[in-house]
Design a protein that fits this description.
The protein is of the alpha+beta class and about 325 residues long. It has eight helices and 16 strands. It folds into three domains: about 1-80, no CATH class; about 90-170, Immunoglobulin-like, CATH 2.60.40.10; about 185-325, no CATH class.
Length: about 325
């Protein structure tokens, strides 16, 4: 293949036309023409799978066979066509020590011939209604509910030319499953306390079932189920609620509680990173009441004192469950 060659071509009427900056192509097999009648207008692709030319004419009736292609840049310029290159999507993932909250940063996404104007995130975690949590912006943070689960995080970037690219990365939230038998696998040597051999997700499911063995527990579980998705949306999307949750160590409290409830009779943490649990509860109750729906605000006003008292007067998960059944 010769690029940039001047070419003289005779048309069907015998007229000779002169062209510059053409691409001359000799067939790899000298006994076979590179192109035949009817191939005009076909694209010429180089060894990197890039379009470099547009077939104009071909000598295929007699040897030496030869084909001529217009340089693709000349064709696009004459036709006033501009081709845009899509952006390249990429993002980094970081995590706090609580193991449930992840931070996603798409600053490493690039666009060689334009500007990225939208970043669309998909957390890959459908809620009970089937909706998936989504975000926009270069960076976002998300707190997942189920430790030990895997999620596929999708980022789609779109540039000012309307072209886009997508990338998917998988994360594992919290601890690996590590066996889900429900059996006792260890004892805390100093105290003789039993350790539950369950993934946190399975452990929470069993605890939910235990709480629901009383009418009071059933009512509480139903209340949690009713507002779970709305609270999750507030924590992950409402800036005021999200800031309160992070500043008052919400993710760290969740991680500490999930670790603690694996040990039978272990005292629940009253403070994490110098933030008392009552301070977290009071602050979150206030912002959720302000930012949530009217039914959620009413539920917070009705039950906040009971929740505060339960965590203030009882030290272990077992004590709280007993209190729920006896209230």
């Amino acid at each position: 293949m010769v690029v940039g060659a001047p070419v003289e071509v005779k048309d069907d009427k015998g007229n000779v036309r002169k062209y510059v900056n053409q691409i001359r192509v000799k067939p790899k097999d000298p006994n076979q023409p590179f192109a035949i009648k009817g191939d005009s207008g076909s694209v010429l692709i180089d060894d990197q799978n890039r379009i470099v030319g547009l077939l104009m004419s071909s000598k295929f009736k007699a040897k030496p066979y030869m084909s001529t292609c217009n340089n693709i840049h000349d064709v696009l310029r004459e036709m006033k066509i501009r081709i845009f290159h899509p952006p390249t999507a990429d993002f980094t993932i970081s995590q706090q020590t609580d193991a449930l909250t992840f931070y996603f940063d798409a600053s490493s996404s690039v666009d060689g011939d334009g500007t990225i104007v939208t970043y669309a995130w998909d957390m890959g975690n459908p809620n009970s209604s089937g909706a998936v949590t989504t975000y926009s912006g270069v960076m976002c943070a998300h707190t997942f509910n189920t430790p030990g689960e895997k999620y596929k995080i999708t980022l789609k970037v779109t540039d000012n030319n309307g072209t886009s690219d997508r990338i998917v990365k998988e994360i594992t939230v919290g601890w690996p499953a590590g066996g889900d038998t429900g059996e006792v696998i260890a004892l805390v040597p100093e105290t003789g306390q039993r350790v539950r051999n369950q993934a946190p997700a399975a452990l929470l499911s069993d605890l939910k079932a235990l709480i629901q063995t009383s009418e009071k527990g059933k009512a509480m579980a139903a209340l949690v189920e009713e507002f779970r998705d709305e609270i999750q949306q507030l924590v992950n999307k409402n800036r005021k609620v999200m800031v309160a949750w992070q500043r008052k160590q919400g993710p760290a409290f969740v991680a500490q509680y999930l670790r603690t409830i694996r040990i039978e009779g272990a005292p629940l943490p009253k403070e994490v990173n110098n933030v008392p649990v009552q301070q977290l509860l009071q602050h979150m109750a206030t912002v959720i009441e302000e930012e949530g729906s009217a039914p959620l605000a009413a539920a917070v006003r009705e039950h906040r004192l009971s929740i505060f008292n339960a965590l203030h007067h009882h030290n272990t998960l077992e004590e709280i469950i007993t209190a729920i059944h006896t209230y």
